Amino acid sequence: MAHNWTPESWRGDRFTAKHIPHYEDQAALAGAEQTLAGYPPLVFAGEARALKAELGRAAAGEAFLLQGGDCAESFAEFSPNNIRDTFRVILQMAAVLTFASKMPVVKVGRMAGQFAKPRSAPTETQGDITAPSYFGDIINGIEFGVESRANDPERMIRAYSQSAATLNLLRAFAGGGYANLRQVHRWTLDFMGRSPWAEQYQSIADRIGEALDFMEACGIDTENEPALKAASFYTSHEALLLPYEQALTRQDSLTGEWFDCSAHMLWIGDRTRFIDSAHVEFLRGVNNPIGVKCGPSLAPDDLLAMLDTLNPGREAGRITLISRYGHEKVEAGLPPLVRAVAREGHPVVWSCDPMHGNVVKSDSGYKTRPFERILSEVKGFFAVHRAEGTHAGGIHVEMTGQDVTECTGGAVAITDEGLADRYHTHCDPRLNAAQSLELAFTLAEMLNLELTERQRDAA
């Protein structure tokens, strides 16, 4: 257990709490925290430990992490269909990546808790009116106005309820036959039949089908085999709103260890990642797997100090380092961090976030992410790890199963002018279902190349 730590130690004067909202009604805040503290945990310690074990395999080069979902979940877009569609695309991506890499794919959703968002400015001005910035539905409303943008602690209760309902549905989908591998492959074939890039990746899809046919010919019932009809699926979000996270922190009755039971995995963002950060203090004491965003502002020595703070016991699967550089900076900026971590022997999962460093303002005024830049950063990430002899262990994307038009490009050829058609995000632009699958097939080619090189080196 972490030395000299309690679930509320982050509130101490020696820690700096950035991007945590101020609530005018402190009594209402205390009431919401007390209510949440009395609610059941959303996830359980054993589930978080299982995820840590799977991530430990990824840290050892024996698995690959697929982490994806909404930039920011919202109350308005909450529906079973949206949850189902995003879950389905993640399953499709995972099936393609598993086949190409010949490794297990650890499936983690940015779901059931990804509500809070840090913002660069605390206020926003429109005309003569200045109101607080929108910090996510768990904190305030997206509609512009002084009243709707007021920080409301009761929103934490609603976020908990939505997260509980989302988790309930995800567990049913993952274990109730919806995740059957044969069905997932049928979805992919159906989708490819309507996609302009189908021919380019047809051979991969054909080989997946042949593998399933072979298993059935050997007497394996692909519709009912437990390993093929269910999927392990975990949840994650940025641990930003610490009053909410603390209220859902529980002590495991079996081990005495503390877990943040709002999600299986939490991560710390680029803006709250510093040594005297209240967020770092909170996360060092919970035993969930932890992600750390790594970008151009992070020096190797600072990263090593962060690793010593968050994972002094060097437990495999505890830390995932999520690089976010931008397509032009990744090949120059990432190697010093990779070398420092390798030199010190920290067992981490290296994952690539190709989204946050590639945001541009389109001519039409929309914030977007060109698909070509996203692919370029992923390719640069793989190139760095190939050169350093380390494992490119994961991908972290903001995506949705909906047919939105938020990121330009891809084979679906979303143009600047077309962004307005279905631009629905509450925060940053997301890959749609077609772009997510196209990314998965491109990743599959890279993973297959990595597999070929490993086999050649072992020969």
From TrEMBL:
It comes from Aurantiacibacter xanthus. Keywords: Cadmium, Cobalt, Manganese, Transferase. The keyword Lipid biosynthesis does not apply. One of its GO terms (biological process) is aromatic amino acid family biosynthetic process. Its cofactor is Mn(2+); Co(2+); Cd(2+). This is Phospho-2-dehydro-3-deoxyheptonate aldolase. It holds the Pfam family DAHP_synth_2. Its EC number is 2.5.1.54. Binds 1 divalent cation per subunit. The enzyme is active with manganese, cobalt or cadmium ions. Mn(2+) binds at C71, H356, E398, D428.
